Amino acid sequence: MANHGLITDVDLRSNENNLAHRTQEIDTKRLIVRRGQPFSITVQCSKSLPPGHHLEVVLHLGKRDEVVIKAQRERGAGDKWWFDQQEAQNKMLLTLHSPADAIIGHYRLAVSVMSPDGHTLQKTNKSDFHLLFNPWCKDDVVYLPDESLLREYIMNEDGVIFMGTWDYIRSIHWNYGQFEDYVMDICFEVLDNSNDALRNSKKDMEHRFDPVYISRIITAMINSNGDRGVLSGRWQEPYSDGVAPYKWTGSVPILQKWSKAGVRAVKYGQCWVFAAVACTVLRCLGIPTRLITNFSSAHDVDGNLSIDFLLNERLESVDRRDREDSSWNFHCWVESWMRRVDLPKGNDGWQVLDPTPQELSDGEFCCGPCPVTAVKEGNLGVKYDAPFVFAEVNADIIHWVIQRDGQRKKLKVDQTTVGRNISTKSVYGDQREDVTLHYKYPEGSKKEREVYEKAGRRVTEAGISAEPGHLKLSIKHPKPVFGTDFDVIVEVKNEGDRDVDAQLTMLAMAVTYNSLRGGECQRQTISVTVPAHSVHKEVLHLRYDDYIKCVSGNTLIRVKAFLEAPGESEPLLSVANIPLSMPEVVIQVPGKAVLWKPVTAYISFTNPLSVPLKGGVFTVEGAGLLLATEIPLKHDILPGHKASLELSFSPMRAGVRKLLVDFDSDKLKDVKGVATVVVL
Q1: 3-state SS string over 180-232?
Q2: Which of 27, 196, 204, 354 is catalytic?
Q3: What is d(CA 188, CA 106) in angstroms, rounded to the nearest whole number?
Q4: Is 0.90 surpassed by the pTM of this model?
Q5: For residue 282, what is the enclosing H or E element?
Q6: What confidence score (pLDDT) does residue 553 get?
Q7: Distance between CA atoms of 584 and 520, rounded to whole angstroms?
Q8: Which residue in 29, 296, 521, 632 has the most C-beta neighbors within 10 A?
Q9: 325 labelled catalytic
Q10: Which member of 173, 299, 331, 399 is catalytic?
Q11: Any catalytic annotation for residue 354?
C-alpha cells in the first residue's frame, strides 16, 4: 500500500473545457461538456506511476448510481466511453471521449490507481460534471450543420413570439434565459420528476441518450396535468391566486419558482408560455429548438379533420355535452431538430412538440415529436400524434345553425382558414419568418388536394358552398387601439338583377385567443333592402365604455354578421376577429453598459385611457442583465399622465442583451416594452 496518496488533485479544467464545448455561458467554474466531443482533465500525482500501474476512470449516473460506466483505456467501439493519457513530470493529462449517443445528465467521475494485479490502490473523491446533447457533433442525432442556425436555436437567449390574428400579427419579446444561473440544474430536475423517472429511475436514466424520449418527457412535464409539471394552465380569469399568463416575459422566473416551491406547479400558463418554457429547457439541454405560431389553429377533438361550430338562431354558441372542437386565433408550439432513427427515412429534421395540455398521447398530456415533413405529406401513421398536428393546420371549419325544431343546418364551410401564416423568429433578426410551406402545399393546389385525400379528409357534401350566388357578406374593420372608440362596417353586396329584402344581425362579443367566450358587447338586428348590383353598408359603433365591460386581459372582439333573405338564398355568416392593440412602455438606457458596472434604465408609460389606472406594476427582466424585478407604483396614473421610474442594475454577462418590461394595472394589462443593451 506504499502508493496510497499518489493522486493529490484532480483538475477538471472547467474554464477551458467549457469554452471548447460552448457552455461557458452556463458556467465557467463547473464542468459542462457536450457528448461526442473530447475533454481533458489533469491528475496531479506526488510522483510518477510505478511500472505496471495504471489509472482507471469510472463514471456514475443517477442519484443512486443507476448507471455505472467504466471508461476503456484505449479506443474501442464508437459507443463506449474511453480515455487516453499523457504524462509530463508528475501530471497526467487524461482526455476523455464520450460516444455521440451517451446518456445526458449529471455525472460523477472517480479516478483510481490500479496495481498490476488489478487491485485498487487509491480512489479519488467523485468529481461532478454535466453532459449535454451536441448539435455541433456530426454523429449526434441532433446535429445541425449550420452555424447561423445554431447561434439562434441553441445560443440565443432572446426570443420573439408572434401573436394576434392571421391578418393582424403582433409580437412580444421573451427572455428564454437558458444560460442563466442554475437553469440547467432545474432542467435536469424537470427530467428527474417525470412519471417515468419516478416509476423506474434506472430505466428512465438508460433512455436519456435519446432526444425523442427526452423531448416527450419535456412536453409532458412543462404542463402539470397528471404529473409534477412546471405550469398550470388557465384560459380565463380569475388569475388572482397566481400570475396571469400575459404578465410573464421570460422562462427563468417560472422555472425558479417551480423548483423553489418543491416542484409544485406555477400558476398560470397559456400556449405561448408553455412553448417558451419548453424552448428554454430544450435549448439548454442542447437540442436545437424554435418557437412556432400557427394562426387560425384547429383543435380537432373527435379526429374527423373538421371543426364543427354550433350556433343557435341568436348566433350564440350552443354548449355541447361532449368536449367541443375549437379554433384558436393562434396557437404556439416548438419545433426541435433531430434525426429520427426510430422512423423510416424522410422523417428527419424539424419535429413538432406541443407542451400545451390538449389531448392524451400514450397516457400523458404531451404531443410529439411529430415530423413536419409527415404533416406536409399527410403521413398520419407516423409517431407521434401526426393526426392531431395535421388537423391543427389543415382542418375544415363548418358552421351549423340549430333551428327551433332542433335540426342542424349547415351555414358555411371554410376550407382555407385553418393554418395560416405559420411563423417563427428569423435567424437574421427579430422579424417574422413564414414557414407555412413547411407544413402544407400551397392552399388550393393540386398537390394539397392529394395530401388531403391521402390523410383521409372527408369530401364536403355536394350542394354546399361557402358563399351562395347573388349575395355576399363581409366585415371590414380598422386596427383599433385599446381604449379608443371604433366602427365596424358590415357590407352586403347584391350581384343579382333585382332588389333583395333581408334581415341582418350583427353581434360583437369578447373572446379569448383560443375562442373561450366572454361577455356580449353589442347586438343589432335590422331589416335592410339591398338594391340590385349595389353594396349596402351598416355600421356597428363600438365604444370603449361598452366593450370595457366585457373585454379583459388579452381578449379580442369577435364580430359576427348573419344575413337571412328568405326565398333568395341560403343564410350567410361572416366572422371577424378584431385584436385590440396596446400602447408601449418606453425604455431608454443611455451611455455605455459595461460588465459589472452600474447602468440606469429610464422607463415610462403614458395612460391613454379616459380613466385613472390603479394598482400599476412594472416587471423588468433580461438575460445577463438582471433577475426579474417587480416595481409597484405608489400612485394612480391619471388620464394622459405619465408614470416614470429609474432602475439601476449591473450587467452580469457581456454581449447584446434585451431588457424586457411588462406593465399591468386594473384597466390595462399586457403592456410591453423592450430595449437592446450592448454590454461591453
Answers
A1: CCCHHHHHHHHHHCCHHHHHCHHHHHHCCCCHHHHHHHHHHHHECCCCCCCEE
A2: 354
A3: 8
A4: yes
A5: helix 271-285
A6: 60
A7: 28
A8: 296
A9: no
A10: 331
A11: yes
